[in-house]
Amino acid sequence: MPLTATALRLRILRTERHLSQQEMADILGITRTAYNKYENGAIQPTLNVKKLSRFFNVSTDYLLGMNADPAATIPNDAHLEAQIKKYLALTETHREIVDKLIDGLYKKEPGHTIYVQKAQRDDERC
């Protein structure tokens, strides 16, 4: 049976850190046999996917094979987490305002030429 993206990524992430399957099992609070099944693709780490993503500092999307970019990490940033909690506490109307503000700032960031060019065309029409 071919390895799933999740199984392969778990194996790579674990071996890069020079950890054994037993050490990973201990970290997760499961048996080595259960962890081995994650790496062999026999079962998905459904209950432990968040714990694994935080441990390896990668997104759950990356672990589950939905994102090919290993650099798509979850920042371990208390400030960012606090900001996200504030955003989630906003009303839908206020979230829309914040979204528009972020989109507007994003258009002005260097390296986002597609958005900048579109914004310039929109400005020229005004």
* Overall mean pLDDT: 79
- Report the sheet-strand fraction: under 5%
Gap between N and C termini: 59 Å
Stretches where pLDDT is under 50 for at least 5 consecutive residues are 112-120
Overall form: elongated
Order of helices and strands: HHHHHHHH
Report on this structure.
This protein has 126 residues and is mainly alpha-helical. The protein has 8 helices and no strands. The chain has helices spanning 5-16, 21-28, 32-40, 49-56, 60-63, 78-89, 92-108, 113-125. The model is unreliable at 112-120 (pLDDT under 50).
Q: Which helices and strands appear, and what pairs or packs with what?
A:
Layout: H1 5-16, H2 21-28, H3 32-40, H4 49-56, H5 60-63, H6 78-89, H7 92-108, H8 113-125
Helix pairs in contact: 1-3, 2-3
Give a short summary of the structure.
The protein is mainly α and 126 residues long. The chain has helices at 5-16, 21-28, 32-40, 49-56, 60-63, 78-89, 92-108, 113-125.
Task: Supply the key terms.
8 helices; mainly alpha; 126 residues; single chain
